[in-house]
Design a protein that fits this description.
Elements: E1 7-8, H1 9-12, E2 16-17, E3 22-24, H2 29-38, E4 49-50, E5 54-57, E6 60-63, E7 67-72, E8 78-82, E9 95-104, E10 107-111, E11 118-121, E12 141-150, E13 153-158, E14 170-172, E15 177-180, H3 183-190, H4 195-201, E16 206-210, E17 215-220, H5 223-236, H6 241-252
Parallel strand pairs: 1-3, 4-8, 11-13
Antiparallel strand pairs: 2-7, 3-6, 5-6, 7-8, 9-10, 9-12, 10-11, 12-13, 12-14, 15-17, 16-17
């Protein structure tokens, strides 16, 4: 879409962008000049976030992935590319579900669905010390956050926040069902007030962990209820809202 000279990012929101396209960020010189003339104090600068599928360059933003350009106004604004890719690329700050594949000294190796495994220190758990080590075994599911994720270094995960608290991260229970969906569906489920999650919560009580790497862990009261929720989540990507409501109403007996 964008030529060699590039186009304004605002004009491409909701449209398909291709790798190599250059998007110019919006500037507001007229508003800045108006503030100076009126003697008003300038507003504090806000940081524009560059999300997946985009990379900063001298001209603005360089598209690195094919998909739909999205924009969010809140929090200073953010641009990202919404695509249906299957392979996950770790991003710093993302919460993901990993599978412990090996123990290498004081470090656990996790399969996170990327091109290489992530590392997790035994000290990256709440309350962990040299004497009080977490009981992590090969095959366990770990829900954590990436603190290191770039093309030149091995991904690194932790199960604590900046305050040293677990904040819901750590070892996931042995029961339940783990399955994989597209990254686009994960973003829909993680959206505030997701309709799919709200509709499912009215069907059965269940626990669910969502990873940005396309993995979902679900546990309901019975195995049958768990499998029903799994099937609905897997099919929701290809169902319209009306079809999904009809299926949920049929299951609930309404």
């Amino acid at each position: 879409m964008a030529g060699e000279r590039g186009v304004a990012a605002e004009e491409c929101v909701g449209q398909v962008v291709l790798p190599g396209d250059v998007l110019h960020l919006p500037t507001h010189p007229d508003e800045d000049g108006e503030r100076l003339r009126l003697g008003a104090r300038p507003a504090p600068p806000t940081r524009l976030l560059c999300g997946p599928g985009l990379r900063r360059c001298d001209a603005g933003l360089l598209v690195t992935k094919c998909g739909l350009l999205r924009h969010r106004q809140a929090g200073g604004g953010a641009y990202w590319v919404d695509s249906q890719q299957k392979r996950y690329v770790p991003i710093k700050g993302d919460h993901a579900i990993g599978i412990v594949t090996a123990k290498a000294g004081d470090v656990f190796k996790l399969d996170v669905g990327g091109s290489e495994q992530a590392s997790l220190s035994y000290l990256a758990f709440e309350g962990a010390t040299k004497r009080n080590r977490p009981n992590v075994q090969v095959g366990d599911l770990i829900y954590g956050q990436f603190v290191v994720a770039n093309k030149d270094m091995e991904p690194e995960m932790v199960c604590i926040d900046s305050s040293g608290r677990s904040s819901g991260m750590g070892i996931i229970g042995q029961d339940g069902f783990l399955f994989k969906v597209s990254l686009g569906l994960i973003r829909k489920l993680l959206a505030p007030k997701s309709e799919i999650i709200q509709e499912l919560s009215q069907l059965y009580p269940f626990e669910m962990v969502l990873g940005m790497n396309g993995r979902i862990w679900v546990k309901a009261r019975t195995v049958q209820q768990t499998l029903i929720i799994v099937n609905i989540l897997e099919a929701s990507e290809y169902m319209t809202a009306e079809q999904r409501k009809h299926a949920l109403a049929k299951l609930s007996g309404n």
